[in-house]
Specification:
This protein is an alpha/beta fold and about 260 residues long. It contains 9 helices and 4 strands; from the N terminus they run αααααβαβαβαβα. It has 2 domains: about 110 residues, no CATH class; about 120 residues, Rossmann fold, CATH 3.40.50.
């Protein structure tokens, strides 16, 4: 069964790119202030210090601008131009918290920013043109995809699913069998991390909400993660849905 009734719009990476550019401008501005404000004091210590400090801050500004440009080009062209893996780490570890704060000041919700971040992350991962064997890919699902009143709990073993077709676990279990890919259902972040440690995949294809996907991408770095947002027609963490065709498309893009 494939769910078509999604109410949310597909996440757009251009919002995150725009906020990343704004963040870069602000960072460069702060770097400039960090050089300009103490200039007089440095000159009193040694006349050459202001020039040396200016060179240092100029290099830092150049790195910030160049990094942002490379990220934008990588995202726009869909090609691994230079240092994509390293830059993805910079975005995940350093830029995302700043961008969330700047977005809040601009009146943009965290979930909207996180949706755009997931789209940006997916673009950076796919730009690496990864080709991985099926047995090294893990599909990680939240337990809320299964119907709340289902008597057969598939957490830890999706093979228990009887494929009645009432929820998307049916289509996902068929998909995993079709491509011979490992699939796990986790009840939370702690169990999800344990599953990843135990199975040691080379790539994770994860389904979750904005918050859990963002934290999962952070926790898994440098392991590449492709995130697919679930839909929540009945509210968070209850009988959620996902388009199985999106999962299959993402899976086929990385399979050998």
């Amino acid at each position: 069964m494939s769910y078509k009734g999604h109410s949310q719009k597909p996440p757009q990476k251009r919002l995150f790119v725009a906020l990343m550019g704004l963040t870069c401008i602000l960072v460069v501005g702060l770097i400039y202030l960090g050089w300009w404000i103490p200039t007089m004091g440095l000159a009193n210590i040694h006349p050459e210090l202001p020039s040396l400090a200016g060179m240092l801050f100029g290099v830092l500004s150049g790195i910030a601008l160049l990094g942002t440009l490379l990220l934008v080009l990588t995202t726009a062209l869909g090609k691994d131009i230079l240092f994509t893996r390293f830059m993805r780490g910079v975005v995940i570890k350093f830029l995302l918290p700043l961008i969330e704060q700047i977005g809040r000041l601009c009146g943009i919700s965290k979930d909207t920013i996180r949706q755009s971040f997931v789209a940006m992350n997916n673009s950076l991962v796919t730009s690496q043109r990864l080709k991985i064997k099926p047995d090294r890919i893990l599909i990680l699902l939240p337990h809320c995809l299964q119907l709340f009143d289902c008597e057969i709990k598939v957490t830890g073993d999706i093979g228990k699913c009887v494929r009645c077709g009432r929820c998307d676990i049916t289509g996902l279990s068929v998909l995993a069998q079709k491509y011979q890919v490992d699939i796990s259902v986790a009840t939370g972040g702690t169990l999800a991390r344990k599953v990843i440690i135990d199975k040691r995949p080379k790539l994770v294809l994860a389904v979750a909400c904005e918050r859990d996907l963002t934290s999962g991408i952070k926790d898994c770095y440098p392991l590449p993660v492709i995130g697919v947002l679930n839909d929540r027609p009945f509210g968070p963490c209850f009988n959620t849905r996902v388009d199985v065709e999106k999962i299959e498309a993402a899976l086929r893009s990385v399979l050998v």
